[in-house]
Design goal:
Number of strands: 17
Number of helices: 10
Largest sheet: 9 strands, mixed
CATH topology of the largest domain: T-fold
Distance between the termini: 52 Å
CATH class of the largest domain: Alpha Beta
Strand order of the largest sheet: 1-2-6-7-10-13-14-15-17
């Protein structure tokens, strides 16, 4: 029997995932090639890989390799269970340097660059704050952190630029250290996007031409679904079902950050896992942010770029989007108003006709 934490986590994942918009239901009564689908649970969320137009044996083998890669990355990047990342965090806390794999060194370098681009609003170095708020757990307790400890962590200002990565003798490996012992890495806002890029690369390597990969609401498309693009739905943050749908073209990715995924409620206030590094408090005033990305790092950007927009809030999200070089974005404020960039408005078809939208330049 699965533990309650797993079950609750799975329910949360099911409630927030961007689902393919029912197009697969049509294949059973058509002459189109079949769509092979497989689901799993990793990165604390539901993952789904759909492959179109391939023989089942080929599709199954390709998807299995993707699922294995997801598990490898999960084991490598877990923030509070034994992993390469948690070992590095332990070294940072002791003021020591730690040998890291070339892959992790590259991730940290990339994440540091994205953090700088966002003026520090995307900050994987604040894992200590995430833990203090209780989000390094499968179940979240409705409790506020110790105010003194919180103030100390905020004052310490852990940042990605505190991390120093150097090569070892002969440049055969890498060593990471931190100038700031308060740095505790949590790559939860980066790993899903990185895994998306890896999944698409693996599918291409194995001769798959058309697929859709969904990691808990971060979705990336490869090719098409037959004669039409893949279509996905964006979950409504306060109601069952999608708020809107859009066609996702080859190489595009979409990612959503919301206050309905990992949160607890105390009194009449909701506390979500998206922490503002400037205050140490969960970001508020926003229900969800969705970004649409493309290019060589579409997956990573779909994950990382939504966080600074969410934290910047209704007044600062457009400026944050420009800094992150995101043209297509949507923010749903606490009052339910949907704020849209022009590029995103052109792509969306709203299923909730009662929604109030506001186009922002």
């Amino acid at each position: 029997m699965r533990d309650s934490g797993f079950c609750k986590g799975l329910l949360r994942a099911l409630s927030c995932i961007l689902l393919p918009a029912s197009c697969f239901l049509l294949t059973a009564c058509s002459k189109e090639p079949p769509t092979y689908q497989e689901q799993g649970y990793v990165f604390g969320t539901l993952v789904e890989v759909s492959v179109y137009g391939e023989e089942e044996a080929h599709a199954k083998h390709a998807v299995a390799s993707v699922m294995q890669e997801f598990q490898r990355l999960h084991d490598m990047l877990h923030a509070w269970k034994p992993s390469e990342l948690s070992a590095l965090n332990a070294a940072f806390a002791q003021g020591k340097a730690q040998a890291v794999s070339p892959e992790l060194a590259a991730m940290l370098t990339d994440a540091a660059q994205l953090s700088a681009l966002s003026d520090g609003l995307f900050n994987p170095a604040i894992g200590g704050l995430v833990q203090l708020w209780g989000f390094h757990a499968d179940e979240f307790k409705a409790a506020l952190p110790d105010e003194k400890h919180l103030a100390q962590l905020v004052a310490a200002q852990p940042q990605m630029k505190d991390i120093i990565i150097s090569t070892t003798q002969g440049e055969r490996g890498f060593v990471a250290g931190s100038r700031n012992r308060a740095v505790q890495l949590d790559l939860g806002g980066y790993a899903k996007g990185y895994a998306l890029d890896r999944a698409i690369a693996l599918l291409k390597q194995q001769g798959v031409h058309n697929a859709l990969v969904n990691i808990g609401g971060n979705v990336m498309a490869l090719g098409t679904h037959g004669s039409r693009p893949w279509r996905v739905g964006i979950q409504h943050p306060r109601k069952p079902g999608p708020l809107a749908t859009l066609e996702l073209h080859d190489g595009e990715a979409i990612g959503t950050s919301g206050d309905y995924q990992r949160y607890f409620e105390l009194g009449d206030r909701r506390y979500c896992h998206l922490i503002d590094p400037r205050s140490g408090q969960p970001a508020h005033g926003v229900q969800a942010v969705t970004v649409l990305t493309q290019g060589a790092r579409a997956g990573v950007l779909s994950d990382a770029a939504s966080k600074p927009l969410f934290i910047a809030g209704p007044l600062g999200w457009r400026a944050a989007a420009q800094k992150m070089q995101i043209g297509a974005a949507m923010l749903i404020s606490a009052d339910g108003v949907v704020h849209l960039s022009a590029a995103m408005q052109k792509r969306l078809e709203f299923t909730d006709k009662a929604v109030v939208t506001l186009l922002e330049p």
